[in-house]
Specification:
The chain is an all-alpha fold and 358 residues long. It has one domain: ABC transporter involved in vitamin B12 uptake, BtuC (Orthogonal Bundle). It has 15 helices and 2 strands. It has a two-stranded antiparallel ribbon with strand order 1-2. Helix 6 packs antiparallel against helix 12. The longest helix has 27 residues. The termini are far apart.
Length: 358
């Protein structure tokens, strides 16, 4: 027998006792926690929806029948209308991994421009109304250009414009509040959002709340059914990859901030109807509540993940908890404490969910 034959037989004998099992590359069965993590990553609105239901159940016991009174439920909706509208604007920005600290002052500045032009300076109400919207758009455009073209950090840019626009509020308004009676007499269009549809048992809904829902539907369609919406998500998820695929990320960012400014102007219109005046002190810190609604609503602060439905849930959570705690006799101090806890929990859950894509 030659050497080749002996080598072949030796090899076969050596392989006879070898492990005959086939290598498997299947993933291990996912644990329950892992499945939950994947589910929440796939459906980011699930967490705020669950929190909202839990809050409603808690306050149904602690506040009794007062919480579910038709008038009280409609009051909660009115209270979250402005937060919801500004939250929609903030969601657009945060989806691009940015943040806009100036949405509150843009809203107030736009309301002051509408009121001063129509009531104090005697401009035709329609023109004053339109220029108020132009103000919001220009403010948003300024933010967008500084972030996208000059390439400054969004936090620093909007912190600076928050101070600039805030100063413009004092300059334009002369620190004067335009009264409800004067607006009603000279520019009734500015009070349109305060009109109500009254139902039975004290329940009502304002035109402003209906407008919030319509804005949410329109922006949802833009984000989910248009190329611009896909570009927003792609830019927030990975701007460099989005650029390499042919997306004009600079134009997308400018468009996002400009659209956010336009939505802030709509919030200004609702604000005048809500407080019945055009005041330089009118809810300038609403941007903090808007950010709260967005974060609690499941939109990631790192961009690329989130939804408007979650933001509306987040706004309702803020309104429900504040209203329920007030009806339960809890001090305002602890109401704000609770909202702060919700924010921290929301960010913690977001970090945990993001580990899926890490």
């Amino acid at each position: 027998m030659d050497d080749d034959a002996r080598g072949s037989m030796t090899a076969e004998q050596g392989l006879a006792g070898a492990d005959q099992s086939v290598a498997s590359f299947e993933e291990e069965t996912a644990t329950l926690v892992r499945r939950l993590q994947h589910f929440l990553h796939e459906f980011p609105t699930a967490v705020p929806f669950i929190v909202l239901i839990i809050g409603i159940l808690i306050f149904s016991f602690t506040a009794g029948g007062r919480f579910f009174a038709p008038f009280n439920l409609s009051l909660v909706l009115q209270q979250v209308t402005i937060i919801g509208i500004l939250g929609i604007a903030q969601t657009l920005v945060i989806l691009t991994a940015g943040i806009d600290l100036s949405v509150g002052v843009i809203m107030v500045l736009s309301s002051i421009v509408m009121g001063r032009l129509a009531v104090v300076w005697g401009w035709p109400p329609d023109i004053a109304f339109a220029l108020g919207f132009v103000t919001g758009i220009v403010c948003g455009l300024i933010n967008g250009v500084l972030v996208a073209i000059i390439k400054l950090p969004p936090f620093i840019v909007t912190l600076g414009t928050w101070s600039i626009f805030g100063s413009m509020i004092i300059y334009v308004s002369h620190s004067e509040t335009i009264r409800d009676q004067d607006i009603t007499q000279k520019a009734p269009i500015l009070h349109w959002t305060a009109h109500r549809i009254i139902f039975g048992h004290g329940a009502l809904i304002t035109y402003g709340s209906i407008l919030m829902i319509l804005i949410a539907v329109a922006v949802w369609y833009i984000l989910n059914r248009t190329a611009f919406g896909r570009h927003v998500y792609a830019t927030g998820d990975d701007p460099e990859a989005a650029r390499l695929t042919g997306i004009n990320t600079a134009a997308t960012l400018v468009g996002v901030y400009t659209l956010a400014g336009f939505i802030c102007a709509i919030a200004a219109w609702v604000l005048i109807g809500r407080i019945g005046a055009a005041s330089p002190l009118g809810n300038q810190t609403a941007n903090l509540d808007a950010i709260t609604a967005v974060v609690i609503g499941g939109t990631s602060l790192f961009g690329g993940r989130g939804s408007l439905v979650g933001t509306l849930f987040g706004a309702l959570i803020v309104g429900v908890f504040r209203n329920g705690l007030a009806l339960s006799g809890v001090d305002v101090l602890w109401q704000e404490f609770t909202v702060g806890i919700l924010i921290i929990l929301a960010v913690t859950i977001d970090q945990w969910i993001r580990r899926i894509s890490a």
